[in-house]
Design a protein that fits this description.
The chain is an alpha+beta fold and about 400 residues long. The protein is about 50% helix and about 10% strand. A hairpin with a 2-residue loop joins strand 3 and strand 4. It is globular and about 75 Å long. The two termini are about 35 Å apart.
């Protein structure tokens, strides 16, 4: 879990900052700590990055290069990370389907190892390309890997929250709210700088952040082209046109929610009404809280109903929060979730032993077969870059999209 923890800088950081004060001419540096703390209590150098950040990407690269066991390779570092950190990284890679129990890369893992992003964001991009909705998914992935474009001035916080929720509509998704904000910003940008500035002022979004998201979208598209998930441009077709043509199902909201579930799983929370105007949120390993700025936060006058939500990460500040979330459907969890178990006596299905759904045993068989078909499509993609556009691949994608889009009618 990411934690925002206050801490002292190192003595090396303090020395560097003193140097900044005298870079061009004689200056004075002021430090808000005592000489005793500096000399006796602060670290000589900053803690190495390997000991501070998640190790999933590093473990992927080790296995992609076939250097041996991740634990053995990292144990040879000058300051090796603790074994628990390596175990956690390998467990996460197993959860997202990038690695099997013997640390062998799956077809999905081989693709993720070639994308310079967090494994969950990489999985989101790959599934967006497979299911032909990469244009909106690339925007959402860009915001996940950078930061939210929404701003909230201290003296206008209520107005900013209302503007943010207006983008979500009835879809109960912070990620789709961000997508619509980006799409409307693009329209305003194309109308001129004045229209762009007015839109950003009125809707409480950062122009600089939006432009950075635009640049990240392009980088992600280039990365997908490099591994064969997107076609190349030509003289009559630019990158934006390539993204548009590879997004046949970009307007299908249930599909976008399902792709978010596929990319973010197992980060799923159960939202359950616990009172007239309150909700409780439970993950597989404990309770969390939904951040008040979320579009899904239960406020006065909102209709409360039990549902499942997918989220990117938990952050611990004064409490354990999930900030951005998207409501996902049972079909999405059965299709892209964890292990399915059938409880014949109760006519129930469980996913990863804690999510329960009322369904006939035949339903489990169908979804297991669909999962195998998706895995086979990803595996073919390694050997045949055109596998997504062949007849069988197109037919499978169309079938899955139709299934997800028609779930509410079932």
């Amino acid at each position: 879990m990411s934690c925002l923890i206050e801490g002292w800088i190192s003595r090396a950081n303090a020395k560097q900052r003193r140097g900044r004060a005298g870079r061009l001419r004689a200056g004075t540096a002021f430090h808000m700590f005592t000489r005793h703390r500096h000399n006796c209590l602060m670290h000589s150098f900053q803690v190495p990055e390997m000991l501070r950040v998640p190790l999933q990407d590093l473990c992927l690269q080790i296995r992609l290069l076939d250097l041996g066991s991740a634990a053995q390779v990292l144990d040879e570092a000058l300051q090796p990370p603790p074994p628990k950190a390596i175990e956690t990284a390998l467990a996460i890679l197993s959860e997202v389907g990038a690695m099997d129990s013997e640390e062998r890369l799956t077809p999905l893992g081989r693709h993720l190892a070639q994308l310079p992003v967090d494994v969950r964001i990489g999985k989101l991009l790959l599934y967006g390309a497979v299911f032909q909705c990469i244009n909106p998914i690339a925007t959402i992935a860009a915001a996940m890997s950078f930061k939210s474009p929404f701003v909230s001035p201290m003296d206008r916080r209520d107005e900013a929250d209302a503007a943010r929720r207006s983008f979500a509509g009835n879809d109960q998704s912070d990620h789709l709210a961000l997508l619509r904000a980006y799409e409307q910003w693009e329209e305003a940008r194309d109308s001129g700088k004045g229209a762009e500035r007015e839109f950003c002022r009125r809707k409480f979004v950062s122009r600089a952040t939006m432009r950075m998201l635009c640049s990240l979208r392009e980088q992600f598209a280039r990365n997908l082209q490099a591994i064969g998930f997107l076609p190349r441009e030509n003289r009559g077709r630019g990158l934006e046109q390539v993204l548009y043509e590879a997004s046949q199902y970009s307007t299908c909201v249930p599909l976008l929610q399902a792709i978010l579930c596929a990319g973010l799983y197992p980060h799923v929370v159960r939202a359950q009404p616990s009172g007239q105007r309150s909700m409780s949120y439970t993950t597989s390993d404990g309770a969390v809280h939904l951040h008040p700025v979320s579009c899904n936060h239960s406020g006065a006058g909102r209709k409360l109903a039990p549902c499942w939500m997918a989220y990117l990460e938990r952050v611990q500040t004064s409490r354990v929060y999930i900030r951005d979330s998207t409501v996902v459907s049972p079909y999405a969890l059965l299709l892209f979730g964890g292990e399915i178990e059938v409880l014949y006596e109760h006519r129930e299905l469980t996913v990863d032993k804690w999510m329960r759904f009322q369904a006939a045993p035949r339903t489990a068989v169908i979804f297991r077969q669909l999962r195998v078909a998706v895995e086979q499509l990803l595996e073919r993609k390694i050997e045949q870059p055109a596998a997504l556009s062949d007849a069988s691949g197109t037919r499978l994608v169309h079938t899955l999209v139709k299934l997800i889009a028609n779930e509410r009618r079932a």
